[in-house]
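User: Fold this; tokens only.

Assistant: Input:
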Amino acid sequence: MQEQTYKLDPAFTVSEERTLRELFPATHDLALKKCQSKLDKHARDFIERSPFLCLGTQSADGKADVSPRGDPPGFVKILDQRTLAIPDRPGNNRLDSLANILANPSVGLLFIIPGFDDTLRVNGKASLITDPELLESMSVGGRSPRIAIIVEVTSVFMHCAKAFRRSRLWDPNHHQDRADMPSLMEIILDQTTGSPEDQLEMRKLDEALEDEYKNTMY
């Protein structure tokens, strides 16, 4: 693998907001006005339809992280016009997002609906809750989450479709074959202990991961 050789040239580095804004046209008035402080009927409808979101957090020392969250549509509960509840499903137990929330409660959410090019952005302050009644209301297959993320909404707005249209994310003609890359298990092993050369052994490891998915999704 090639060693890092790229170096920033200070002559072309933007380091001040004034300089940044001079590079772009003025913000459209509607783009400023669209930002809301609470969930209106359109935001609620979008969230209730969404089976997937990305959760952005930041640690106390400024390290950023983004985590995917997914469940059946409506998995994020709307508790009131300014409060959301996100179930935390079983994962790898790194707990990056949860630990970050304890250190810095500011979070950003990006709600996505399959087939929709536009998205919904929500920013707010998060807390971690173990209320049994709330957790039980978010159970799937008789399994309740251990914890929920409560988000106090501070801003919410619709985001335009340009990124999804540029990427053609939902266009089947532009979908790539997952088999063109190694499996997730093989990639992780390559990055850590090394993957086995025996393809039969590798296939068994891949099958074991699929079994784990089936048994530990909730």
